[in-house]
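Example 3.
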Amino acid sequence: MLETRITKLFGIKYPILCGGMFWVGRAELIAAVANAGGLGFLTAATYPTIEELRQDVRKAKDLTDKPIGLNINLFASLRQQPIEEWVRIAVDEKIRVVETSGRSPEAIVAPLHAAGVKIMHKVPGVRYAQTAERLGVDAICVVGHEAGGHPGMDEVTSLVLVPAAADAVKLPLVAGGGFADGRGLMAALALGADAVLMGTRFMATKECRGQAAFKEWMVHANGAETVYCMKSIMNPSRLAKNSVVEKVVELERKGATLEEMLPLISNQGPAVVDTGNMEDGLVSMGQSVGLVHDVPTCQELIDRMVEEALSVQERLSGLVGTKAPA
Ligand SMILES: Cc1cc2nc3c(=O)[nH]c(=O)nc-3n(C[C@H](O)[C@H](O)[C@H](O)COP(=O)(O)O)c2cc1C
């Protein structure tokens, strides 16, 4: 049932992944996704020290005996990132899959593979998917323009990006950006993907870090309450709509530089999530927030997605089998 190239490659029950999420992608959430049959990625950049990352990896492993993943974000960052140490943690702690993003993973493919760690590289466009395939990663995730986080410069939505990527690469393919329920899962499979990857939907779960008020905002938000911005400084992002993001957009319109925007954009994630006050800073958010209507456990969410997917399959096979009236 719902067995795909990704479930087989990653050793998981369902083709449902929780992408790396700065600040919120921690042990409780990742273990809950794993226990429910999916695969989640702890997010290395969240932790101020390597020791704190190691402790959270171990905590996740205490909470589940299923595979867990680690997100290694290779984006250019103001803070020097300890990529080699993150790789060492993945190897030492026997992480099943590393999700890379932001830049070419070339430098870390060999050390991860030597230790038997699978690599899924996440990209926002077909040409990057082809490059990653040439570099020898094990799976590709493409994220469309709807996605929370960094959906890339091309502004191509998942409906076009996923089948275009399926035509262009042979590796197992994961679809991200705009997926939140069983209908989306079946749509992604129909478009040629082997799994869905969700960020936004998993933020509104019981196990995810965050104040109730923050998750309630998500429940009441519609798909138009996100903003795609910061393309002018080569840092395209999709964020929850609030007065801070509106100021960022205003600055961009005036041709502001990265330095001029820094005071506004350096405050990402922690404040909004931890206070529940949506005006406290910036937080990544995908358009799929418009499909979030409750705050279930990860188990409830994944079970429901699988049930919905099977009923979609039933509905579609009924349609295909129906003869046109004489
Ligand atoms: C709050 C938040 C933080 C994120 N942080 C990261 C990150 O640190 N690294 C990364 O590769 N992707 C990050 N992402 C992107 C997700 O892993 C995923 O690609 C995206 O959320 C999928 O689109 P969706 O939001 O429509 O589900 C983040 C997304 C959100 C919503």
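The mean pLDDT is 95. The CA atoms of residues 73 and 101 lie 5 Å apart.
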